[in-house]
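In this section we walk through a basic example: taking a raw amino acid sequence and producing a predicted 3D structure, encoded as discrete structure tokens. The instruction is simple. Fold the sequence below.
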Amino acid sequence: MGETRSVLGVNGAPEGEAVVGVGIDLGATSLRAACAIQSDVRMLTWEDGSETTPAAIAMIGDKVLLGQRALEQTRNHVHDVVIEPLGLKGATFLGGVRHPVEEILGWWFAEVSARARSLMGPGRQRFVVCVPFEQRERLAPIVAAAASLAGAELLNTVQSTTAAAVCHGWSKGLGETELLVTDAGARKVESAVIRLRSDRVSVLGRAGESCGGRFLDERLAEACIHALVPGLDPRRLDSAKRDDVITRCEQARLELSRAETAHVQVSFLGDDAAWRVTRQELERVAAPLRAGVTATCERVIAESGLDPARLGAVIVIGAMGEMPLVLNAVRDATGREPEVSVGSGLASRGAA
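The resulting token sequence is shown next.
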């Protein structure tokens, strides 16, 4: 591809000034953030102690809620909650007031900035934000405006695969190398071959497919509803009930990464309404996902012109990264054993 840049676009800081690098990996449905002063890199944690929080944003009355507290409002205030803020195409109504998408995303910048200051102390904060590759042209100016509204200094927007490669290379002390990174996220699968040099990052190949964890959870939810209520069109359910089924299917999918069967309890159909789903059923529903993972890996290898055996590592990140079906697809496409880095904040740490 020939895309080359200094490492994540980070420039030298004025002499004597404490600079805090802040990296945000804002996915379709979740958010991770890290901050760094030189080699001291730390993940932000949220109310439940986790390093991952839902990307949801809500406004109840005049109060802004973020993360898990926002997601909980879908039970009673579903029209005042944005579950996937990156999917907003323009202004939307929250709390009865029309808010520009830049303002809505700006609330996340303000929250992350405050938490980074609490964790790392005072200093000049500089943000790098991971955005999906296929939406970078649309999202880059929106993210820049959101940062400005929050009073944050945005250095760059990058892709999660690039940031993850930088972090992996730095933490492993790999020096000059080429890495293949696959991000199996909520709405998309993206693969990239990244060349790391001492002060430059080059993207040798990149490809993406519009499928991912959220896609799979929605397909599972449709199968669940059809099994429990034959003939019911899932699209006829109100959004709160449908989102509840999708959330329960997500939990079942995660369980099926470790077990052969799982149960989906559908609360609005009664206490006895449960769907037993097997890993075999999951893999049938997930066939398009496996095809998408295989296709992206094969395309970036062909585009880079590299023999997979020459790669320094093959890495899998993202919400779907631990799913056996995803790992098998990467293994089949590359002939390499993938290194799984799910839950480590690799992209956000690399951005920081």
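Looking at the output, two observations stand out. Residues 9-13 have pLDDT under 50 and may be disordered. The longest helix spans residues 101-120. In the next section we compare this with other chains.
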